Amino acid sequence: MIKPLVLGLALSSLAVAASAQPATYAIEPTHTFVTFEALHVGTSTSRGRFDKKEGTVTLDKAGKTGKVDLTIETGSISTGVGPFDGHLKGKDFFNSAEFPTARFVGDKFTFAGDKVTAVQGQLTLLGKTLPVTLKASGFNCYDNPRLKREVCGGDFDTTIARSQWGMTYGLPSIPDNIRLLIQVEAVKQ
Questions:
Q1: pLDDT tens track for 161-187
Q2: Distance of alpha carbon 119 from alpha carbon 111, whole angstroms
Q3: Residue among 74, 45, 186 nearest 119 (CA)
Q4: Cα–Cα distance measured from residue 78 to residue 90, given in angstroms and rounded to the nearest whole number
Q5: Is residue 126 part of a domain?
Q6: Intra-chain end-to-end CA distance of the chain, in Å
Q7: 16 occurs within a structural domain
Q8: Helices and strands in the chain: count of H runs, count of E runs
Q9: Which of 37, 45, 48, 100 has the alpha carbon at shortest distance from 78?
Q10: Could you give the 3-state DSSP secondary structure of residue 98?
Q11: Percentage of residues of the chain with pLDDT beyond 90
């Protein structure tokens, strides 16, 4: 009787250990949006998005750790106004010809229970890397019936001072603070 009990406990321990392993998730581009908001000369809010992005998330829910690596193609910026997009891609702002990507690598996750509430990391933009904290809301994981895999995601946001990365065009008329919003879903691999 003791041998089956010990074997059962050992198998249960292995199952728990296996479920506590970090899992890798691929960012799903059709459900992931990177957008920005900037006050335009003290009047209206200009908004835009980056259409091309990719990355991965490693998440260890039991260990309350994780890592995210998100790359954004700066030349994929879209405000809905072609000439404005062209100006944003140019040397005054993103300088997409010289710096075709921006990258966020976050390796410090904050949890409340099993929900991610913040991710601290480094944002590389215009060749300069600085710390950024993304605050999370609505973080959740679910089993996607169509994909037959787990999907995790949420809404993340932060406000950065663009001048810290050397983007100084139009200051102070065009304010320094830019709000970044990232809605992300990632599929377990």
A1: 999 999 999 999 889 999 999 999 999
A2: 9
A3: 186
A4: 13
A5: yes
A6: 40
A7: no
A8: 2, 11
A9: 48
A10: coil
A11: 84
Domain for residue 8, yes or no? Answer: no
Please choose, from the candidates 189, 150, 182, the residue with its C-alpha nearest in 3D space to the C-alpha of residue 53. 182
Structure tokens at 77: 């910026």
Question: Which tokens go with 151?
Answer: 């999907």
Which CATH number belongs to the domain containing residue 156 in this structure?
A: 2.40.128.110
Q: Which amino acid does the sequence have at 153?
A: G
Amino acid identity at 71: T
Give the whole-angstrom CA distance, residue 113 versus residue 135: 15
Residue 103 in contact with residue 124, Cβ under 8 Å? yes
Q: Which of 15-19, 60-64, 66-70, 177-181 has the lowest mean pLDDT?
A: 15-19
Tell me the mean pLDDT in the region 47-75.
96
Please give the distance of CA 184 from its chain centroid, rounded to a whole number. Answer: 6
Structural domain total, the chain: 1
Task: Please report, for residues 35, 99, 101, 103, 106, the alpha-carbon distance to residue 127 in angstroms, rounded to integers and kept in the order given.
Answer: 20, 7, 9, 10, 17
Q: Is residue 2 part of a domain?
A: no
Give the HSE-up count for residue 166: Cα atoms under 13 Å, Cβ half-sphere: 12
Tell me how far apart the alpha carbons of residues 152 and 68 are, in angstroms, rounded to a whole number.
12
Residue 79: give the domain boundaries. 21-188
